[in-house]
Write a structure and sequence with these properties.
The protein is α/β, with parallel strands linked by helices and 280 residues long. It has two domains: 105 residues, Methionine synthase domain (Methyltransferase, Methionine Synthase (B12-binding Domains), Chain A, domain 1), CATH 1.10.1240; 146 residues, Cobalamin-binding domain (Rossmann fold). 57% of the residues lie in helices and 9% in strands. It has eleven helices and five strands, in the order αααααβαβαβαβαβαα. It has a five-stranded parallel beta sheet with strand order 2-1-3-4-5, sandwiched between helices. Strand 4, helix 9 and strand 5 form a beta-alpha-beta unit. Helix 1 crosses helix 4 and helix 3 runs parallel beside helix 5. The longest helix is centred in the last third of the chain and has 24 residues. It is globular. The chain binds cobalamin (B12).
Length: 280
């Protein structure tokens, strides 16, 4: 039986720092058996310290203990790389350290991807994703792509620093239901807008639903550039993508009603969370 471990707790980065640096007496993964909790802390440290030669072994150890790929991605891998981002921002880490941590994430995803993708049972449509021109970040986009694939989509991943031309070529060739732009830099987020303008100029806006995501991206950015949906994380992105091929499948890309319906998915989730918090 796969282990069910809570990974949804939201962390303030400062609290996470204190927690990671000073104690393992944490509420993170407290519902996991003690050996799994310890292993998760070791995996988290492995990513923070960029010990990429050992990452795959740790992932295999966790799989042997019945941890799921999703738990590892949303749990220790997410908190580990978040702490790396904080250290980088505070000038405690420089580029070489971040690159080593990214290597750990890629090593882990290499093991986990086949397990996630194996969940695919049906083909519900095509998604084209890519990181926009000028941007080399691809860890989050890869996670989104694999979760989409598990949910039944055929995913065409165009890689990193994808030009508007390349996005257009892929749209014309694959006729996707959704095209997703990832951007992690404030200096490249504008390329999401440029690519979207290009899709509109080529007369393809109604044919494709446009999703945007990445650390600096927000719902208000999505609204501003006229994209259809913002995906704060992979799970939310998949939920919205599924809506595009089920109850919202008759709506066209760029339709304000589609935009509102996709946004309502976030509102409903927030309301449900609030109701749950009030009830407990
Ligand atoms: C790892 C990393 C790198 C690695 C990237 C390796 C790789 N192959 O991806 C390397 C070392 C190469 C790197 C380079 C640089 N980086 Co960097 N990097 C990071 C770091 C630490 C983690 C990013 C990450 O992987 N996060 C984990 C994933 C899981 O999260 P995510 O990407 O946000 O994805 C989730 C959601 O956003 C969403 N999502 C993501 N994409 C999409 C797409 C769609 C369609 C949808 C729906 C959803 C979605 O779902 C994902 C899964 O849940 C961030 C810190 C941070 N806080 O983000 C800095 C960060 C993004 N980098 C930063 C900077 C400055 C740089 C450099 C410019 C540094 C330099 N001086 O050279 C270069 C830029 C290179 C370039 N041209 O792109 C800054 C950006 C600041 C800014 N204001 O723009 C950050 C924020 C660090 C910081 N705090 O200062 N970086």
């Amino acid at each position: 039986m796969p282990l069910e471990i809570e990974t949804e707790i939201e962390h303030d980065l400062e609290d996470l720092k204190k927690d990671i640096e000073t104690t393992r007496g944490t509420d993170r993964w407290s519902d996991a058996p003690a050996d799994v909790k310890e292993l998760f802390h070791v995996l988290e440290w492995n990513i923070i310290e960029g010990e990429h030669f050992d990452t795959k072994e740790l992932i295999h150890d966790a799989l042997e203990k019945e941890c799921t790929a999703r738990t590892m991605i949303a749990g220790p891998m997410a908190t580990g790389i978040a702490e790396v981002g904080r250290r980088f921002k505070m000038d405690e880490y420089f580029l070489p350290e971040v690159m080593m941590s990214a290597k750990c994430m890629h090593a882990a995803l290499e093991v986990l991807k086949p397990l996630i993708v194996a969940e695919k049972t049906e083909d519900v449509g095509t998604v084209v994703v890519g990181t926009v021109q000028g941007d080399l970040h691809d860890i989050g986009k890869k996670i989104v792509a694999m979760m989409m694939e598990a949910a039944g989509f055929s995913v065409i991943d165009l890689g990193v620093t994808v030009t508007p031309d390349e996005f257009m070529e892929a749209i014309n060739e694959h006729n996707p239901v959704i095209v997703g732009f990832s951007a992690l830099l404030t200096t490249t987020m504008n390329m999401q807008w440029e690519t979207l303008k290009r899709i509109t100029a080529e007369g393809k806006r109604e044919d494709v639903k446009v999703f945007v995501g990445g650390a600096p991206i927000s719902q208000s950015w999505c609204d501003k550039i006229g994209a259809d949906a913002y995906g704060i994380d992979a799970l939310v992105s998949v939920e919205k993508a599924k809506a595009c091929v089920t109850n919202l499948s008759n709506m066209k890309g760029g339709d304000p009603e589609l935009h509102a319906a996709l946004l309502a998915i976030d509102t409903e989730r927030e309301e449900a969370k609030l109701a749950e918090a009030v009830a407990s």
